[in-house]
Design goal:
- The complex is a heterodimer of chains A (585) and B (116).
- Chain A is globular and about 70 Å long.
- The longest helix of chain A has 32 residues.
- By secondary structure, chain A is mostly helical.
- Chain A has 21 helices and 2 strands.
- In chain B, 31% of the residues are buried.
- In chain B, α1 packs antiparallel against α2 and α2 packs antiparallel against α3.
- Chain B is elongated and about 65 Å long.
- Chain B has 3 helices and no strands.
- Chain B starts with a helix and ends in a 13-residue tail after the last helix.
- With 116 residues, chain B is mainly alpha-helical.
- The chains are: A mainly alpha (585), B mainly alpha (116).
Chain lengths: 585, 116
């Protein structure tokens, strides 16, 4: 079985190479069928490996095994969480490819293979990052995934905003990646190893933490948190999501940013968790602080958006904050909750983006105000959109609600309030959009030139309005929502996930997860709050109009790449300041 | 002092690149600044692998074990890093060309369509 692990990366890369080589001659249907077949094959492989991942697979590529505990080779680690992320990335790639079957207009002649080819490369990068067992290859796959994501974000090169968003995304994420590489170089200098477990051992034999460990920790975490879009590293995310083609947004929000949080969990657990690394209290301080700020800012900014894709992007920022808090408290139960929450969130968020894509195709706009009441005849899409919104609020028995309930129980205390408030606010914003756009409720919103990106004047991504909505474009979000529901209701699924996560993460401390009355009540509470907020916003818009204090917050999102780089440096300094106390002690 | 000098140089080059990125008035210049940041990673990697009085790790004319060699692993890492950097820079410059065509400017101060 171990031998099959490298195929997770090799198969999509070969598929992409095939599409690059033959894409010029292939008709569009053939190119997209090849794309779907290859991504489905990889997804199947990931699932087969995942089902056999106990004990974890360890593959030293090319037979470069360690000698006397010293390694120079490339190692891939296939344990439950890693293969789970690979399977999730592969399934979402397949969903995005199926969704885009009829989505784009006829691609320029001789370029039918470019979009599916790029998607397969993206899948290869994500799978590789998920199973990378050494830090340098994690960096290489991180960059592969990022570079393809920049190219996909700027896929519509004819559009002014698309290239601008892609450039911002590229500069900020690449700078983060170089910071991460500097951290990796420092760790190599200390231990002479690149494999994560060996680095962890090397740091521990060296004695207590010192300035070098702190510097390496800050640099590596900077790179990963840029990917995970934690405040203040998050500025690229709304810009990139607003301009990327919708199938790409499904992948960016559904799994790519979550891979950043997964990277933080993996790197801390295997490299820095020992006595020579960063003390647990420090990590908790770092991640809970950043996570709480991220959740609050993401939720507030989400509420005041009218560009539907930006609104969904900020909702992802808020949820990333909740995931980071869950990872930061470092209990096995919180890890399980976050894993379940991520699975549910991937399905729900991808299906909401898919619905936004249908609106963009039908009406050439994703502006809440311009679309007021215009989508009345899209009943099926309205049901999907509303279902996605309540699932986002954590309504039982969706997987999002299950993961949220388990995580809330693990973090406890005032942080539970934050979980309920952030999910209610983001889901309330989505419900408000649904009520206005699909039902035409409330007065027609007034036009006023605020400081914001409106969603009008978007180019539809389909060449001309499709005569009717293709079945694939409604079936994909329905299936994704069904998947998110399955995470919450399938008996024993939670325990399987918890077992896999705990085996890899917490050294044998197994906990079992299940619905509890308190969790169900909190899920219902945040759904009710979301519905209430949406009702007030629709019927009495004046009550919830943007207050004065929200304006400076919105001005921070200036669209200027230099500002974003400056904020990133502030964030790195903040990381160092938060992690310092435990190192000094 | 000489031991830490390469590390300080790497840090200084990285921060200089970041300063350039934050204050740049021209996107081509900004892409160049990102390349400067990346050069800092080359300096750091090579500093980590350096050994006094060591030679290149090529064993065609050096008997293995007869004299010290510098660490070949970091050289391989730096080479991979160069390849990654070339890809990123090429893609970024292509995006800048396209921005110049669509917006008619390469000044980031004038690109303010995405905000709020």
């Amino acid at each position: 079985m171990n031998d099959l692990l490298p195929l997770l990366v090799a198969v999509p890369v070969l598929g992409a190479a095939l599409l690059v080589a033959g894409g010029r001659r292939l008709p569009r249907v053939a190119a997209e069928s090849v794309g779907c077949a290859v991504s489905a094959g990889t997804a199947g492989l990931a699932i087969v490996l995942l089902l056999n991942s106990s004990p974890p697979h360890v593959e030293w590529v090319g037979g470069w095994r360690p000698k006397d505990g010293v390694s120079v080779g490339i190692v891939l680690t296939g344990d439950g969480p890693g293969l789970g992320m690979a399977a999730l990335a592969s399934l979402l790639t397949l969903a995005a490819l199926a969704y885009s079957w009829h989505y784009f207009d006829e691609p320029p002649r001789r370029h039918a293979g470019s979009f599916p080819g790029l998607m397969l490369l993206f899948q290869a990068g994500m799978c590789g990052f998920a199973v990378a067992g050494d830090l340098f290859n994690a960096f290489v796959f991180f960059e592969l995934m990022s570079v393809v994501a920049y190219a996909l974000t700027g896929h519509r090169v004819e559009e002014a905003k698309a290239v601008q968003g892609a450039l911002t995304f590229a500069v900020v994420t690449s700078l983060g990646a170089y910071a991460m590489l500097m951290g990796i170089a420092l760790l190599y200098g200390r231990t002479g190893e690149l494999a994560m477990t060996q680095i962890g051992r090397g740091i521990d034999t060296h004695g207590g933490p010192d300035a070098l460990v702190l510097a390496a920790f800050v640099l590596v975490l900077t790179g990963l948190l840029v990917k995970a879009a934690a405040v203040p590293f998050h500025f690229w995310l709304p810009d990139a999501h607003a301009v990327a083609p919708t199938p790409v947004c499904m992948l960016l929000s559904g799994v790519m940013v979550e891979l950043g949080a997964y990277g933080v969990w993996r790197v801390y657990g295997t490299v820095f968790a020992g006595p020579g690394g960063v003390p647990a209290a420090d990590l908790e301080q770092v991640l809970v602080t950043l996570g709480a700020v991220t959740a609050v800012i993401g939720a507030v900014m989400c509420w005041y958006q009218r560009h539907i894709k930006r609104l969904l992007a900020y909702s992802t920022v808020a949820h990333m904050g909740l995931f980071l808090i869950g990872i930061g408290v470092l209990t096995p139960k919180a890890d399980d909750g976050v894993a379940l929450y991520m699975l549910g969130h991937a399905g729900v968020k991808a299906s909401l983006f898919a619905c936004a894509g249908i609106l963009l195709d039908r009406y050439g706009s994703v502006d809440e105000h311009a679309l007021h009441g215009r989508a009345r005849q899209l009943r099926g899409v309205a049901v999907l959109f509303a279902t996605g919104a309540v699932a986002l609020a954590g309504l039982p028995p969706f997987g999002t609600g299950f993961g949220k309930a388990v995580t809330e129980e693990a973090v406890g205390g005032p942080l539970t309030v934050l979980y309920v408030a952030a999910t209610a606010l983001t889901a309330g914003a989505v419900l408000r959009v649904g009520a206005r756009v699909f039902l035409g409720l409330g007065p027609h919103p007034e036009e006023h030139a605020g400081y914001e990106t409106t969603g009008s004047g978007e180019e539809p991504e389909t060449g001309q309005r499709l005569s009717r909505i293709p079945d694939t474009m409604t079936a994909v979000p329905a299936l994704l929502l069904a998947g998110a529901l399955t995470v919450g209701v399938a008996p024993g699924f939670g325990d399987v996930v918890a077992h896999a996560v705990n085996e890899a993460g917490s050294g044998g401390a197994h906990v079992s997860v299940h619905w509890t009355p308190v969790g169900v009540l909190l899920g219902l509470l945040s759904t009710l709050l979301a519905a209430g907020l949406a009702a007030v916003a629709v019927t009495r818009p004046g009550l919830l109009a943007a207050p004065e204090w929200a304006l400076p917050l919105r001005r921070l999102q200036s669209g200027h790449v230099g500002d974003y780089v400056a904020w990133m440096l502030v964030g790195a300094a903040l990381l160092a300041a938060l992690a310092l106390p435990g190192i000094l002690a | 002092m000489m031991d830490v000098l390469p590390y300080l140089v790497a840090m200084w080059v990285f921060l200089a690149g970041c300063y350039g990125l934050a204050t740049s008035r021209n996107l081509i210049h900004a892409v160049g600044c990102l390349a400067v940041c990346q050069s800092a990673t080359y300096v750091l990697l090579l500093a980590v692998g350096y050994r006094d009085d060591a030679t290149a790790p090529v064993f065609s004319d050096v008997q293995p074990g007869s004299r010290p060699v510098v660490d070949p692993v970091v050289q391989a890492l730096a080479l991979t890093d160069v390849v990654v950097g070339a890809t990123v820079t090429a893609l970024l410059l292509a995006l800048v060309v396209q921005i110049s065509k669509r917006h008619g400017t390469v000044d980031p101060d004038e690109l303010s369509e995405l905000r709020g």
